[in-house]
Structure formats: structure tokens, C-alpha cells
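Q: I'm writing a short methods note and want an example of a predicted protein-small molecule complex. Could you take the sequence and the SMILES for adenosine-5'-triphosphate and return the bound structure as C-alpha cells? Please keep the output block clean; save any remarks for afterwards.
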Amino acid sequence: MSRDPVLCVRDAAKHYRSGDTIVRALDGVSLHVAPGELIGITGPSGSGKSTLLLIAGLLEPPTRGEVRINGQPVAQPDAELDHLRDFRRRNIGFVFQKANLIPFLTAAENVALALEIDDVPVREAHRHAVDLLEGLALGHRVDNRPARLSGGEQQRVAIARAIANDPPLLLADEPTAALDSVRGRQVMELFREIASERQAGVLVVTHDPRSLDLFDRTIEFADGRIVAETTSRQAPAETVAAQ
Ligand SMILES: Nc1ncnc2c1ncn2[C@@H]1O[C@H](COP(=O)(O)OP(=O)(O)OP(=O)(O)O)[C@@H](O)[C@H]1O
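A: Understood, no commentary inside the block.
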């Protein structure tokens, strides 16, 4: 059985004007992420990694090229991304370097809020949030506010929030940069689990070479282009290459 990629980025470019010059933040990038795949994006500062996530996350339209999610063409140069707000919320989870939890809500309330925004009734959202946090070994933290949690715990709550409505695609921008190596590893292992068990496609930008063994593939960027790709684990059996 073959499955379509969750994310397909085709010949994407993103150019910014800076005075008289054009910055080619992305310059013709094509990649795909299959269900169950965990992909690492690496490369030097300024090589276009975050720009790729902005384009893949439907937060910025590409200057050229196309983004498909689950086979559906959703972003082209003239795309009105505001119209995609609901689509984005249902299909894409985001995790950033900082957890950005709401400080006056408990861990469970932070996660539940993501579901309530999606019209899940309050009680059901809370129950689901608690279940999710328990599954991420945070059952003892559900009623704590973020200030009581370690950096790694906060980041795991942020991941629970990002996957609360079960999006098929998860995008993370340097999610372990603020963590020590042990907590950073735990967070990367969580992404591995989410990809394997929930069959989400997960794209993680990282400078951290210590977790590369967890990725199915590592894609290296330089000057807005893909310059190398390494297959680090055996690819999931049921995935196919991008068309
Ligand atoms: N809004 C913008 N306007 C002009 N130039 C931009 C804009 N956003 C990004 N750039 C430029 O595009 C290039 C790629 O930036 P990007 O943030 O994608 O790199 P990165 O690989 O994520 O870097 P880092 O590892 O430092 O986060 C850089 O030269 C950056 O200065």
C-alpha cells in the first residue's frame, strides 16, 4: 500500500526585497513528508530553514512554487492565506523554540484551550488534555501553571497543545534549542513517537546534532537550497516518494 505525502513542497522560492537587493531566503526547494516520517532540517544560520517552515505552515505565501497538504494544493504565490486559518488549525501543529504557554492557565488548560478554539466542549477538551498529558508522562503536572514546570516539561506541554486536535502535520522550529542535552533528547524522542504512533508527518528544524539518529531523513540547507540529504533510519515501510 502506498500513501500520499502529508506535505509536498514543490520548487518553492521566497524572495524578500531589502533596499535595492533581493534576498533569496528560499531558492527552489522541493521536499515531501510522508505520514509517520520524522525529518530534520539542518544548515547554517540564514540558510532558509525557518522560511521553509513559514511556507510549509501556510504562514507566508511562496514567491514561486506550491505547497500541497494531503494532496490538496493550498499555497501558491497568489494564495490568500487568511482564508486558510481553519484549514491550518485542523491540519498543522506548530512548536517553537519557546513553549509560549499562557502563564495563568494550568498545563491542562493550556492544552484544552487549543481544543476549545476548535469548538470542542470545555469538559471534553479538559478530559482529552489530561489524557494527552498523562500519555506524555506529565500526569503529575496537569494542574500546575507553566512557572512550576521545567523547561523540558513546558516544551512537552507545548507539544501536547500542538497535537491536541491530531493534525497530520507537525512543524517545529528549533524546539530543543533552549534545553539541556537530556531534556532536548526527551523532546526529540517525543517527536519520534508522535511520528511513529500517530502517523503524523513531522518536520523539525534543529542545530542539535545529538538527535539525528532519531530522524528518518536529515535535509541540509545552504543559501536557500537543499544541498544534502541523509537517510538516517530505515524509512517507514508504507511510504512513497513524492510525485
Ligand atoms: N522578512 C524578511 N525580510 C528580509 N529578509 C528576510 C526575512 N526573513 C528572512 N530573511 C532572510 O532570509 C534568509 C533566510 O532566513 P531564515 O530565517 O529562513 O534562515 P534560518 O536558516 O532559519 O536561520 P537561523 O538558523 O538563524 O534561524 C536570511 O538571510 C534572512 O536574513
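A: Remarks, as requested: The beta strands are 7-18, 21-33, 38-42, 64-69, 72-75, 92-95, 169-173, 201-205, 217-222, 225-231. The radius of gyration is 18 Å.
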